[in-house]
Amino acid sequence: MAKSKATIFFCQNCGYESAKWMGQCPSCREWNSFVEEPVPQASSSKTASKPTAGVVQWGSLGIGESKKGTQSGSGDARGKRSALPLREIAVSDTDRMSTGIAEMDRVLGGGMVQGSLILVGGDPGIGKSTLLLQVCRNLTQPSSNTQEGVRVLYVSGEESQQQIKMRANRMGSFGDSLLLLCETNLSDVQEAIVSLQPQVVVIDSIQTMYSDTLSSAPGSVAQVRETTSVLLQLAKGLGVTIFIVGHVTKEGAVAGPRVLEHMVDTVLYFEGERQASYRILHGVKNRFGSTDEIGVFEMKEDGLREVANPSEFMLEGRPEGTSGSVVACSLEGTRPILIEVQALTARSSLAYPRRTVDGADLNRVNLLLAVLERRLGLRLSEMDVYVNIAGGVRLKEPAIDLGIIIAVLSSFKDIVVDDKTLVFGEVGLSGEIRSVAQAPLRVREAQKLGFERVILPQACVRTIGKDCGVQLLGVRTIRDVVSALS
User: Which of 32, 268, 358, 372 is the 20 to 30 Å CA partner of 430?
Assistant: First the structure.
């Protein structure tokens, strides 16, 4: 009788290992997160000579040492790294490299950081590969400083070289410094990176890569974790920027263990409706910049195009002279975005009226409806209420509270809000309208797009100059809002 292979259990959320299955992970306290994987059966000759074939150990090279040489005083004769005082470590602006796409540079915090590991996740067919191929196109174009562009290695485990070439032909001309490699074996990918010495590498996708040292299938917890670990060593050891494409699950999270997001430096999500032309890039983790910025793109036949003015793009096709619609202002990082908030109230025939929300937090909307019913006496408990943030954007900032309140009031009382009116403000449980950050920036955006009146918290009025170019209507409570609409 053959002896069964030894197995081990991994937590998909944090990577904790256990010899037996457990209902709750003792490390991250997540329930039902353990999956069974076979124990790696690596030969003694491989593991004794080198941990993984082709890996450049983090301690053997500093960032960029393969091209710039070892920094003085940073290592000893055996190649080991030594500790340095913080004041002796030099950091310059040249450590960042522009992707050639202003919207993506904004989300990354000013460009790619040398030696960083960047994870790009999104639904299938949303445009992840197209976005990264456009980045490769921009990087490989000759610049005024160099006759040749940046050397980029594009590794695909899902498409052939001919398929990538067909997609690239629709985007325009590429420089000669773009190299294509269709491979899923991690050892071969490592050897190509070490021998070719590219400055930027794209791995499409992480779920297709596998290591010979593991017997599990590609895309499993062990394979994804091992592959990411090897790529992390390459990025830090050679100073190469590596983009990793990751598929997402039906819940919207990157497929594979949660530890994958903890290991990388930056996590970007590329989202949008496949039937619509817009796409939104936002960061959920960034060690080198803010996670509040977003980038807006429009899908065209020749690839993705940047949307320089997202507010104008989001408000296209807005109905005029209709109740239940109002324009609110949300702040995403340093960029104010004007979006349309829609609401519809209808008498319900059910014991439990419907509450449907798209683009905002359902619990937050329920809270605002309770405030309206309690403070204004509106019988919303007998009504079906539908709230929609037009454009497919998901917003969590409290500044859209006032927009939701006014949209519901407008639909319930059948009051048409003036098309040239903009609103923003946070609503408290007692019905007070609280101030929000960056009010002058929001008002300037409203003026730029032709709005004539702004309904905002009274506390924010004094922070804005009198010569702002628009009429400011400060409100303290939701009762003042009813008076402003009537």
Answer: 358
